Amino acid sequence: MATKVATRNLLLGGLAGFLAAPVALLIAYAVGIIAIAVSSRELLATLLSAATVLPLMLLFVLLLPTLVISVVTGLLVGLLSTHIGGWFKTVGCVLGLLVSETCLSVILPRIIVPQNNDFMTIVSNHFLSASYGVVIGFIVGWLQRRFSSTSARV
What we know:
The chain has one domain (2-149). The chain contains six helices and no strands. It has helices at residues 2-40, 43-51, 53-80, 88-111, 119-123, 126-153. Helix 1 (2-40) runs antiparallel to helix 3 (53-80), helix 3 (53-80) crosses helix 4 and helix 3 (53-80) packs across helix 6. The model has no long low-confidence stretch (mean pLDDT 90).
């Protein structure tokens, strides 16, 4: 019986991670538009970047790492869900931070070498990758909590 519960929680964690990835990318898109608007202070440049460069960079550079970060975080939260009680969001934030730092600041810069002031330099920044991981972990923890409470009622 314990194996059945652990497998169910693991699958729910993976689902939570899979659903958290598009939400995290939408949040990254919104934050990116705000950052471009603040730094450029021009409406046309912001709109042009928001319509062309930013979606392509998020798609080509961040889609796969975001999926990896969110699914791995979801699987870990699902695996630990029987031991963490109601601390889904907190544990999700910590695990998301660790997985994101590993993925974005350690592994990804070895694959795509950051140049001077390019998108990879921004993505591999430790503070930004940690913040991104915390957001992903929070979303995953929230979804896992919702899934666990919903499946407990059924």
